[in-house]
Amino acid sequence: MKNNLRMLLAVSIAAISLVTSGVAALGQTAKKDNRPKRIAIRAGRLIDGKSDSAIQNAVILIEGEKIVSVNAGGTPPAGVETMDLSRATVMPGFADVHTHVVLNGDITAEDYDAQLLKQSIPYRAILGARNARIALDHGFTSIRDLETEGAMYADVDVKNAIANGEVPGPRMQVATRAMTPTGMYPLLGYSWELKVPTGVEYVDGVEGARKAVREQIMYGADWIKYYSDRKYHFESDGVLHSMVNFTDEEAKAIVDETHRLGKKVAAHCIGSDGIAAALRAGVDTVEHGDGLTDAEIGEIAQRGIYWVPTITVGAYVAPGRGGNWTKMVDLEKVAFQKALKKNVKIALGTDAGGFDWKEVNQAKEFEYYVEYGMTPMQALRSGTIIAAELLGWSDKVGTVEAGKWADLVAVSGDPLTDITEVEHVKFVMKAGVVYKNELR
């Protein structure tokens, strides 16, 4: 009997030992499986965003979401999955710092009004997710979305859905609702008996301005945007003038409260008067800026303020809007060339949404910058390293180097000889995940 008990005890101990060792082995296997995946990319040409010329035959080693190393003429480590882009040009993922993902074309008032009156906010958010995917497919791995145009805080929802892996798209910074004083932004002209939606949050007075900033940040705004001007017109001095929306006290309250809460301010300002008012208020970025004067260009350069020209949208809407719009496009080209000579920090922004996302590739903006006087390398930097600086993400994106997120795009040709190549992106990787590869 005792012998039987001893034998049973020995078998039990052996079984427990076997199970324990099996669990340990499974744990070790799980640890191995959970280690970040390593990928090596062999790039025929690498435009890393900081060097003055392309690097030939580079090897980019990626572990998980980040770049581990970049070596010219290197050899991928043994046993690491290698992606062969040896016939392509690899670049940092692009950034568009002026978009509207929940807007789909805004040539006429009818285009705009129909979206706010006939489309629900949930439906517009769905289209916003679709548009974010279009941006990613075009090589834009980061965007700054500068207001929802009446869709309240839907840009926060799109941003969060992307960040949580529910839908594919660029990483986003958002500005939610934007601001103007009462009655100075569409929808306008409807019967006073009707309560129609508005494209912005109406804000009046210094205290109202501070409250609106706090409210938008509470609901998820990364940036605050306000409309500095409207009604653009030329006067006898040949300068593009505009009507300023906010009093100086109101505009300064918006900027001061935003800065106090650790955020930054983007100002829509097209005419010289609106630009001057925005500069007095202390904004961080000037959006559009068609009517920049020599003095304003000098001030922007001296103060290190970013200019986001959004040339693509102006050229797109001008024929349909008529009036001064065609002349404004020509005027902005002159301002661009002057700003370039003054070393103004020009960051790439397209105002996508002002044009239909399905009709125009955002990367067209690069082409305009080269046409207006930038070298192809300068243009590429406007949408990579300079845009990253504007976003406050210089430590994360904008260049291809160790420690940065593995955000990469590739094209078949050489954009340094033909900038239009960037309008034909064949490969997109965001944070180490491949979303598009037509170079297999």
Q: What would you say this structure looks like, in words?
A:
- It is a single chain.
- This protein is an alpha/beta fold.
- It is 38% helix and 23% strand.
- It contains 13 helices and 19 strands.
- The strands form five sheets. Strands 3-2-1-4-17-18-19 form a seven-stranded mixed β-sheet, with no helix packed on it.
- A hairpin with a 2-residue loop joins strand 18 (427-430) and strand 19 (433-437).
- The chain is globular.
- Residues 1-31 have low confidence and may be disordered.
- Proportion of beta-strand residues: 15-25%
Shape: globular
Percent helix, as a range, is 25-40%
Strands of the widest sheet, in order across it, are 3-2-1-4-17-18-19
Oligomer: single chain
Mean pLDDT: 93
Q: Report on the biggest sheet.
A: 7 strands, mixed
In whole angstroms, how far apart are the ends?
71 Å
Ranges where pLDDT stays below 50 over 5 or more residues in a row are 1-31
Q: By helix and strand content, what is the structural category?
A: alpha/beta
Q: Given the structure, what is the number of helices?
A: 13
Rg from alpha-carbon coordinates:
26 Å
Number of strands: 19
